[in-house]
Amino acid sequence: MNIIVCVKQIPDPAAPGALNSESHTLKRDGKLVIDDSDMYGVEMALQLVDAAGGGEVSLVSMAPNGETSGMRTALAMGAAKGVLVSDPALQGSDALTTAKILAAAVQRLGGADLIIAATESSDGYTGTVPEQMAEVLGLPSVTFTKKITINGSTLQASRQTEAGYDEVTCALPAVISVTAGVVEPRYPSFKGIMAAKSKPVEQVTASDLGVTPVGWDGAGQKIISVTQAEARQAGEIIEDDGEAFNKIVGFLENLKVI
Amino acid sequence: MTLNNVWVFAQATNGVATTATLELVTKARLLASNVSVFVSGDGAAIAAAVGDFGATKVYGADCGAHLPGVAMAAAMKSVIDGGESPDLIMFPQSYEGRDAMARLSVKLDKTVITNNVDIEDSGNGVTVTTPIFGGNTLVATTFTGSGPFLAAFRPKSFAPEASGGAAAAVTAVVVPDLGAAGSAKVTAVHVEETTGPKLDEANVVVSGGRGLGEADKYAMIEELAKLLKAAPGASRAIVDAGWVPYSYQVGQTGKVVKPTVYIAAGISGATQHMVGMKGSKNIIAINKDKEAPIFGIADLGIVGDVHKVLPKLIEALKARG
């Protein structure tokens, strides 16, 4: 069982997000970290490979400046190798171009039995890349997967819906997107962190992958303005002195909710 | 360009068009004179409803056990290949909507812009508005190149308004062979609906978060919700932790709510969550940490322990009878 996990390396989510004033793209020039949402996919892949009794987990990622620190976290967890697509020409790429790039990177690794991504990234959250990748690769897909089991060449998944969940079966190879909380990601061990430093990450460009056009040229969209939304004003803030519940009752009465 | 033909990806539950569908049809009607709707299943079931809101055509495709988003994207592509040329295709930001728009964007090799709350046709460009950073910043993006333009909208972005139109004309579309993608099939459907008012339609919503401390403390949220005839909701943190089902989740990846009153108990106000509730008319927040971002948007903020405030509030409401 060989599995490829798509890993996004994003700015530290604890720091407030910012846009480049000219390009209007998210600032990604500082140190990047693995998107928390992707930790679940990495963990799930490691568990599935273990359960299958053989195979390996590989990574694909697209990030500026040859950044691999987020990928190293996944390698430290137990992934074996990765392909990083890093190319200044990719700046401004839309989700469709990103999907084409990641699909090409998957093919560069020789494909896999299963490709796992998060449902959406924490910084850009377009939320279409996994399904777009599946279509580019001509594969079936199950998005918003909460639980999966694999029997031979078939996977069974529980998929979130507005009202609850559906059970879905699907032939491998396939692309799935997994929700946060689906498994408990392991902490990398010291040994894992040391080993990750020497695991191979091949760095390629968009043209190495044969994907054109990319970046602003390939995007069917152009940002024309960025404005501040009308801010919602904070109201009355009080410290609970044991009687604050009365304030809530009064507030609800005023609104005729009670 | 000026929009002439607009398509809407519609969804129906038990043969009834969803509110999100009617919101999009309303907006489509205001943008263009020809509005067609695509729905998984029998188009006739929703023809009167979508017609009333301004659609003139409804295409229904029997998706069988296929994942509807995958099958509908192929069905829509086949109608385009058959000679129809939509200028714009509007999708709801839903599970099926996401699958469909993603598949269709690859089939058409067109970008798709998601998470929008507005759209405008200036006559020489179609521009969508997307909130980012928890809704503090609005990004206006114009489609470049030729259509069809694909865009997805968050629920409650537009007010649904009937126009009194006649029932839409129904056309059945055959889902083409899906190839390998067709191997994904739904084998069982599980509904985890909450009792009481629906989360995204309730007048009052009471949500709990990590500050409740442990799963069984969520019972306080349910009790308070019952007393206020409210829907209980949750932050992503406690859904991920498995305390309550996903269908309770309010936020970016959950439901968008705009009730008269939203009570956030033990919720700090992650961007993820605020996106789903900041449109509420009145917000009451209870949190121990006075620096919690939720207080920045609360009309009434109580800096205190939910384990002390909620029981007293529940008692007070009970005493009122």
How would you characterize the overall build of this protein?
The complex is a heterodimer of chains A (258) and B (321). Chain A has helices spanning 36-52, 69-77, 95-108, 129-137, 190-196, 206-209, 215-218, 244-254; strands spanning 3-6, 9-11, 32-34, 57-62, 81-85, 114-118, 141-151, 154-160, 164-171, 174-178, 201-204, 221-228, 236-239. In chain A, 29% of the residues lie in helices and 28% in strands. In chain A, the strands form 2 sheets. Chain A has a 9-stranded mixed beta sheet with strand order 9-8-7-10-6-1-4-5-11, sandwiched between helices. Chain A has a two-stranded antiparallel sheet with strand order 2-3. Chain A is globular and about 65 Å long. The model of chain A has no long low-confidence stretch (mean pLDDT 92). The longest helix of chain A has 17 residues, at 36-52. Chain B has 321 residues and is an alpha/beta fold. Chain B has 2 domains: 5-183, HUPs (Rossmann fold); 204-320, TPP-binding domain (Rossmann fold). Chain B has 8 helices and 18 strands. The longest helix of chain B is centred in the last third of the chain and has 15 residues, at 306-320. At the A-B interface, helix 3, helix 4, strand 7, strand 9 and strand 12 of A face helix 3, helix 4, strand 7, strand 9 and strand 10 of B.
Keywords:
heterodimer, A: 258 residues, alpha/beta, Rossmann fold, nine-stranded mixed beta sheet, two-stranded antiparallel sheet, 13 strands, 29% helix, globular, B: 321 residues, 2 domains, seven-stranded parallel beta sheet, five-stranded parallel beta sheet, 18 strands, elongated
